[in-house]
Amino acid sequence: MLELNEETGQRETLFTEVILPLAISKTYTYRVPLELNQQIEIGKRVVVQFGKSRIYTAIIYKISNEPPTLYEAKYLIDVLDEKPIVTTQQLELWEWIADYYLCSIGEVMQAALPSALKLASETKVILLPESGYDKTLLSDKEFLIVDALEIHSELRVSDISKLLGQKTVFPLLKSLFDKNVIHISEEISERYKPRLKTFIKLDPFYQDADNLKVLFAELERAPKQLDALLAYMQLSRQYEGQVAKSQLLETANCGGAAIKTLSEKGIFISEKQVVSRFLESDEFISKDFLLSETQQAAFNSIQDQLTEKDVVLLHGVTSSGKTQLYIKFIEQAISAGRQALYLLPEIALTTQLVERLKNYFGNRVGVYHSKFNDNERAEVWNKLLKGEYDLVLGARSAVFLPFNNLGLIVIDEEHEPSYKQFDPAPRYHARDTAIYLAQIHHSKTLLGSATPSLESYYNARAGKYGLTELMERFGGSQLPAINVTSLTDGKNKQTLQGNFSENLVNAIRETLERKEQVILFQNRRGYTPLLRCKTCGYTPKCINCDVSLTFHKSTGKLHCHYCGYKQDTVSICPACGSTHIEEKGFGTERIEDDLSMIFPEARLARMDFDSTRSKNSFQRIIADFEDRKVDILVGTQMVTKGLDFAHVTLIGIISADSLLNYPDFRAYERSFQLLSQVAGRAGRRNNSGTVVIQAYDTEHRIIHQVIKNDYDSMAQAELIERRNFKYPPFYRMIQIDVKHQNLQQANYTAEKLGQALKQILGDRVVGPEFPLIGKIRNYYIKTLMLKIERSNVSIAKIKKTLQAVLQNFEADKNNKGIVLRVDVDPY
């Protein structure tokens, strides 16, 4: 950067365009004070005033000596960083996301940066209670801030600014943050805790045969302690000295008192270790594991295709050992001196993989996900900037991290809907964003799934991506046997017990008798989705949303799953006074209730959004199930992802029809994926597995394709439908929601916007129509859908035209109060 003008020899006045963490359509230009000329650099954070009094942290986007023409540039206040915290590759990605997903680059910045790195006037500052800082090392102003935080539980940045009587306090807060004294956050999120397990070791003194002999003689008077020692010796040989306390208690059958006494005597040594919450196989832990013949063939195929293609799709059945292939390719990238990113749809559900990869690759593995608080996320960000990580595991937001030498991106379960961000903007898809990120870094992308998305499958079949298939389960285990049972027959013959067919009840009973475990899947939470008056047909509805209320037995109330509204349940119809209130449908709570009646001796657990809200509840349920303290696990989609248990031999799908009949063009694809993934939870070791699918429409095409594990037939049938009715992957879709609190205004403005778009884009515009749920949180919604062909048209030009129409529409004062929500690739 030039500080002196070469012609005049005078110091040059510089201007910076900055990205503000706001939904404004343009960057904003500030003048650089001469004393800061040498400090500014693209990617650094600067402190600026925007508006009358608001102070923000902005990112330097461009530097020039050209002042803005439309307004007088204010001076930027300060530069926060010694080195850039955002790389040029990240800024390139931000630009692409803003252009592709039709949002502002400020919204991308807001999503990308951890809250601790984007201070603003309203940012909350909290004192870290466990930091153990030395007050004598604080400056006078830092001491004042800490003193105030000890009195108040939290302060806003604007409060601290008033306290010190100065406009900007960001450098002081950055200093306290770096010293680990304060926590900076838009909101406080709970800290994720790893699972600890107690292991027992024998004191080294007793490794000597003579000493051990003496010990056995001493313990003859204490038979329980002797039993514990004998059990330890047996397990120690089996597990090479790694004996879990729980295993010892189960094997010795002596109670905890004997083990406690032996520990107090110094004979046993207890120590806690971080362990996976899932059962692991040795093949994943061993540093020199060998690929099977089919895995090696798949590895060679992928490697050959990556020489020509930037993206390869690995289509491998559940439990085929895809993770081992990922590890081998990650190892290659790291050996070549490059970084790797491993994306997972639900990082909190796959903690066993984190442990496996840390065991394999060591401490240069970073983890980035929503269970981390903002300080922890900022720490990962900074460590990656310094090059301290070779591999990062993360959920979708990990695509925003500052990689500097990315060589490989692995996207596991690439079909998962949770890779898509729905609200707020940017409404990006992590899979597609990651593929563009790989292009920026000139790296490769490996997609993996047992049930690929039709977009990825089509791209692979069309030759855009490479394709490798792995159709054998690892270790020779067989795919589970799938049985379909008719609910219609059960009703006609009156053999249903609650919502369970005779076949499923018998299968559960036999599984429990064999001391094995069961997972039951029902894609609805709550007890009863619908209450209805038999006399007049009245149904309790949410006062804020156009949905019926769901009864939850755990609270005894009716709940709205969209806005959180609750009310007391009804036993008398408020419309006609009738007491004939019937329950329609069922959720996971009802299934759990029915099971407790049919199998009163069985130990039950439920895993859904309601049962996993509290701290560590998910981990507790999984740990109990893993330790076989639970016989039957009932759950929603949570039970389909990442769970791997040796003793689960029966999967029950309570109602397949609710998936198949959902009004969405992806319903059949998603049903096939979900049913196949749930079925894949059974028989994942040497045990054979069974799946029972309950349905009214037992002859449905998708059910038979799941039974045959015939992904290709499902894909071909769906692709024909998609082509005929103008859906992806043959057409691009852009959804525009028009929202207003007044129904007539929502209707009028949606029609007006639809006409404006149809004049330019013609029959590519569909609607406006009410969506499935026409009112949420007191806003009425009308939806316009754009279907744009992929060939012979410039999507960039269409998006530019759309943006211009939407900007003019929002600028019209007659449209005051209207909220527009734009979603590119909405499903």
Order of strands, widest sheet: 14-15-13-16-17-12-18
Number of helical stretches of at least 4 residues: 26
Helix share bin = 25-40%
Number of domains: 7
Radius of gyration (Å): 30 Å
Q: How many angstroms separate the termini?
A: 45 Å
Give the CATH superfamily of the largest domain. Answer: P-loop containing nucleotide triphosphate hydrolases
General form: globular
Strand content: 15-25%
Short key terms for the protein model shown above:
single chain, 827 residues, alpha/beta, GIY-YIG endonuclease, 7 domains, 6-stranded parallel β-sheet, 26 helices, 21% strand
Characterize the structure shown.
This protein is of the alpha/beta class and 827 residues long. It folds into seven domains: 15-113, 3-Layer(aba) Sandwich (GIY-YIG endonuclease), CATH 3.40.1440; 124-185; 195-275, no CATH class; 286-474, 3-Layer(aba) Sandwich (Rossmann fold); 481-524 and 588-718, Rossmann fold (3-Layer(aba) Sandwich); 528-585, no CATH class; 731-824, Ribosomal protein S10 (Alpha-Beta Plaits). 34% of the residues lie in helices and 21% in strands. It contains 26 helices and 34 strands. The strands form eight sheets. The chain has a seven-stranded parallel sheet, sandwiched between helices. Strands 19-29-28-20-27-26 form a six-stranded parallel sheet, sandwiched between helices. A five-stranded antiparallel sheet has the order 2-1-4-3-5. Helix 15 links the parallel strand 16 and strand 17. Helix 1 (88-100) packs across helix 2. The chain is globular and about 90 Å long. It starts with 14 loop residues before the first strand and ends with a strand. Residues 186-194 and 276-285 have low confidence and may be disordered. It catalyses: Couples ATP hydrolysis with the unwinding of duplex DNA by translocating in the 3'-5' direction; ATP + H2O = ADP + phosphate + H(+). Component of the replication restart primosome. InterPro entries: DEAD/DEAH_box_helicase_dom (IPR011545), Helicase_ATP-bd (IPR014001), Helicase_C-like (IPR001650), P-loop_NTPase (IPR027417), PriA (IPR005259), PriA_3primeBD (IPR041222), PriA_3primeBD_sf (IPR042115), PriA_C (IPR041236). It is an enzyme of class 5 (isomerase). Belongs to the helicase family. PriA subfamily.
